[in-house]
Amino acid sequence: MKDVTIDYILRATWQAVARMYNEEAKEFDSTMAVGFTLLSIDPKTGTPSTALGPKMGMEATSLSRILKSMEEKGLIERKPNPNDGRGVLIHLTDFGLEKRNYSKDVVIRFDDVVKENVSEEKLKHFFEVMNTINSLIAEKKIYTKETTN
Predict the structure, then answer these.
(1) 6-26 and 32-40 helices cross at what angle (nearest 10)?
(2) Which of these, 58, 85, 95, 103, could form a disulfide with 35 (CB 3.0-4.6 Å)?
(3) Exposure string (b/e) for 51-74, b if CB count within 10 Å is 16 or more?
(4) Which region, left, alpha or beta, applies to residue 118 given φ > 0 means left and ψ of -120 to 50 means alpha?
(5) CA angle 62-67-69, nearest 5°?
(6) For 76-91, what is the mean pLDDT?
(7) What distance in Å separates the CA atoms of residue 31 and residue 29, rounded to the nearest whole number?
(8) pLDDT given at position 90
(9) pTM of the shown model
């Protein structure tokens, strides 16, 4: 491929990041998905299980498998939501908080190393481009019914 497409570089970079995070998570007997979930749960008040999927951009089925595994490993516990009798709050256990701190350190290390190697101006432009791409997708300005038929 002569010209690298935006799609290609996004995918290739994300796959490299995911591989890196999974290799690091393996050191702590974990996965990137578990680390991301730990970071998405409010460490003080817990997080409603129904809010977790949308917050993480995950389908309910994938998330419920991860949560089940995390519960079996003693990272989380489910408690009734006092504000909604039908709902459940996901809380971190002490062990979950410990693993969350490891995950947070890994993410901060990644950010710090990138910031040491990429100028503030270039990072600003990177975030502008990523926000534009996300907006174009959210506003369905790339593929619409008229353009895909």
Answers:
(1) 90
(2) 103
(3) ebbeebebeeeebeebbeebeeee
(4) beta
(5) 100
(6) 91
(7) 7
(8) 96
(9) 0.85
What is the DSSP secondary-structure string of 93-123? -HHHHHHHHHHHHHHHHHHHHHHHHS-HHHH
CB-based contacts of 60, cutoff 8 Å, min separation 6? 53
CB 5: neighbour CB atoms within 10 A? 9
Per the listing, tokens 């998905």 go with: 33
Separation CA 133–CA 91 (nearest Å): 33
Q: How far apart are CA 149 and CA 143, in angstroms?
A: 10
C-alpha count within 13 angstroms, C-beta hemisphere, residue 111: 6
Non-local (6+) Cβ contacts of 70 within 8 A are 34, 37, 38, 76, 96
